[in-house]
Amino acid sequence: MEKFTGKVWLLGDDIDTDIIMPTEYLVFKTIEEMKPYAFSPLRPELAAQIRPGDIIVAGSNFGCGSSREQAPEVVKALGLRCVIAKSFARIFFRNAINNGLLLIENADLADFVKEGEEITVTVNEKIECRGKEFPIVSLPDNLVEIINAGGLVKAMRKRNGLD
Question: What are phi and psi of 92, to 5 degrees?
Fold first, then answer.
């Protein structure tokens, strides 16, 4: 099982795609140009503070709103290792998996963890925080394959012997 530790950035409920990647910055041609503006309507400083390997922990309905693919793309481009939320909007969930971003649903962690703490995730098994364990439901093997490959296109290229 893959295991990693990361610093927590705590967000609330109903973090929509307009908060994750605001519409006015979609004029930029690349995700790299968009990165500094991620989460800016809610916390303008957040994108600059996130470091590779960090983890977002959020409440319910993370990724609600439009189906813009730039939202999960920018989360991944910021170097976030995963997003753990009470629940995800279904289209965001699918777009995130297709872009190789690990999402974990857990109903209790967001009410327990504090921003800035480190948590340890054992993929498809548990989250550890301050000595407490939070079990997580396993993702199906096909979704794990897509995430591990870095996204759907990369997974299919690998599966078909093209890479």
Answer: -65, -40
The CATH number of the domain covering residues in 3-138: 3.20.19.10
Instruction: Kindly tell me the sign of the dihedral angle through the C-alpha atoms of 31, 109, 13, 123.
Output: positive
DSSP conformation letters of 118-133: EEEEETTTEEEETTEE
Q: How far apart are CA 9 and CA 55, in angstroms?
A: 6
Q: Which two tokens stand for residue 60?
A: 């319910």
Locate the domains of the chain by residue range.
Answer: 3-138
pLDDT along the chain (163 residues), means of 10: 94 97 96 97 97 98 94 97 97 95 97 98 96 94 91 92 88
| CA pair distance 15, 62, nearest whole angstrom | 5
pLDDT of residue 1: 66
Strand blocks (E) in 11-65? 55-58
Going by DSSP bridges, is the β-strand pair 3-10/118-122 parallel, antiparallel, or unpaired?
antiparallel
How many degrees, rounded to 5, is the angle at CA 29 between CA 144 and CA 71? 40
Radius of gyration of the chain (CA): 15
The structure's pTM equals 0.94
